[in-house]
Amino acid sequence: MFSGLIAIAIIMCAVQAIRAARLLSSAVWLAGASALTALWLYILGAQQPAVIELSVGAGLVTVLFIFAISISGEEAFTAYPRVPRKLALLLVVGAVALLAVDLAVASGMPRAVDERAVSTLSDTFWNARALDMLVQMVLIFAGVLGVLNLIGHEEIKEVETPGEIQIAQTHLPQVVEPENEELLRV
Amino acid sequence: MNLSPLDTAIFLVLGLFGVGFYALLIVRHLIKLVIALQILVKAAVVALAAAGAASGKLELGASLALSVIVVDTVVAVVALALALQVRKHFGTLDVSELGTLRG
């Protein structure tokens, strides 16, 4: 009963995140959906994903959204949607129906019983899925580069001088002193 | 009717998937598209955790859900950075305006 109420609240938060006119409201509704998802995962028994979802999904991602919205500003569109609403609704109903049939078939299938000893989450992470961890590290590195791109705003402007085009990066420090430029050219 | 958390998981996954997919089709705002993607990934996280609990391998489901959460965060960061670059170069966050890309 309690998990059902939480599930309804999560879906309502998700709908509000899409329907909200202001982007900031959308980000806050999404944070609410993340927090409730964390609670739902905790009830299911997956405590570690619940904690990560609460800290990363509801915390870090929301901060990133608010940061991006504050840079880009609110921009309201009054034009038509990309896909006609009726066609989109038809596609969604079809996809959800297919997924429901798939889930119903999968839940009726016999489950494989694992005879091995019960492993811990850290065993699964560091032993069974070691390659996945490496890939994740690379992805996290890509994410760090993304954050640097998000935060670092280097304004690149092109300055035309007679005979050549110089690209001046205004926020980068001047490494070479003007009087030493002649030495570099030699 | 008394539904267990695993039963409600199916409805939750279907609901989140429907909302996220509909938003992906309808929305034109780049940042809202990222929000729709986040909702879709939440459906995947819930599905993985529930599948792990249903099959008796909760650790495997939890570890996969953890991976999805981490990767989803990275995707959100990169997508937001791209959205800001689009805003900087095109002056808008409308996806339809990106159809004028040349070269």
Draw up the topology in text.
The complex is a heterodimer of chains A (186) and B (103).
Chain A: H1 2-19, H2 23-44, H3 47-72, H4 85-108, H5 121-128, H6 130-151, E1 156-161, E2 164-169, H7 181-185
Antiparallel strand pairs in A: 1-2
Helix pairs in contact in A: 1-2, 2-3, 5-6
Chain B: H1 5-26, H2 30-54, H3 58-90
Helix pairs in contact in B: 1-2, 2-3
Pick out its properties.
heterodimer, A: 186 residues, mainly alpha, two-stranded antiparallel ribbon, B: 103 residues, Helix Hairpins, elongated
Can you describe what's shown?
The complex is a heterodimer of chains A (186) and B (103). Chain A is mainly alpha-helical and 186 residues long. Chain A contains 7 helices and 2 strands, in the order H-H-H-H-H-H-E-E-H. In chain A, strands 1-2 form a two-stranded antiparallel sheet. In chain A, strand 1 (156-161) and strand 2 (164-169) form a beta hairpin. The longest helix of chain A is centred in the N-terminal third of the chain and has 26 residues, at 47-72. The radius of gyration of chain A is 25 Å and the shape is extended. Chain B has a single domain, classed as Helix Hairpins, CATH 1.10.287. Chain B starts with a helix and ends in a 13-residue tail after the last helix. Chain B is built from 3 helices and no strands. Chain B is mainly α and 103 residues long.
Estimated radius of gyration of chain B = 17 Å
H/I helix tally of chain B:
3
**Total count of helical runs of at least 4 residues of chain A:** 7
Q: Which outline of chain B best applies?
A: elongated
Known CATH architecture of chain B: Orthogonal Bundle
Low-pLDDT runs of 5+ residues of chain A are 168-172
Q: What radius of gyration of chain A results from the CA coordinates?
A: 25 Å
Give the class of chain A from helix and strand content and strand pairing.
Answer: mainly alpha
Distance between the termini of chain B: 60 Å
Q: Strand order, main sheet of chain A: write it out.
A: 1-2
Largest sheet of chain B: none
* Separation, N- and C-terminal Cα atoms of chain A: 79 Å
CATH level 1 class label of chain B: Mainly Alpha
Q: Helical amount among residues of chain B, as a percent range?
A: over 70%
- Rounded mean pLDDT score of chain B: 86
